[in-house]
Design goal:
This protein is mainly alpha-helical. The chain has a domain at 39-119. Helices cover 52% and strands 7% of the residues. Bound molecules: zinc ion. Keywords: Endonuclease, Hydrolase, Nuclease.
């Protein structure tokens, strides 16, 4: 009986999903997602967006862009650490920068640190 050759494809490709859809599906299941619904977080978010109402990444672009911020973003990834999650530091971002640019930066940092850990004794 013929056997299909072994292929090395990411799980997302086998399921007809993009890697980003896989990433979002995993994120939704994380326990820290519930922290975004707490009064404590809502107050932090409101305070951050009041203090810094424009997207920081858009403002840093050359030429600079003026975009209303809607996301209170963790400057340092909290990685599920509750103290870090609520302590910040935070920055204001627009939805586009948060969902595209920031995630791309964090993913590239994560793969860089994974490589560095693999190389170091
Ligand atoms: Zn932006």
């Amino acid at each position: 009986m013929p056997v299909a050759p072994l292929t090395l494809r990411p799980r997302s490709a086998r399921l007809g999903r993009t890697a980003n859809q896989d990433y979002e599906a995993r994120r939704r299941k994380m326990p820290w997602r519930a922290w975004y619904k707490t009064p404590e977080w809502r107050a932090i978010r409101r305070q951050q967006l009041n203090a810094e109402p424009l997207c920081r990444m858009c403002a840093a672009d050359q030429p600079s862009r003026v975009t209303a911020a809607t996301v209170c973003d963790h400057v340092r990834p909290h990685r599920g650490d509750r103290a870090r999650f609520f302590a910040g530091p935070f920055q204001s971002l627009c939805e586009t920068c948060h969902s595209a640019r920031k995630q791309r930066i964090e993913r590239s940092r994560a793969s860089q640190s994974a490589c560095a850990e693999g190389e170091a004794p």
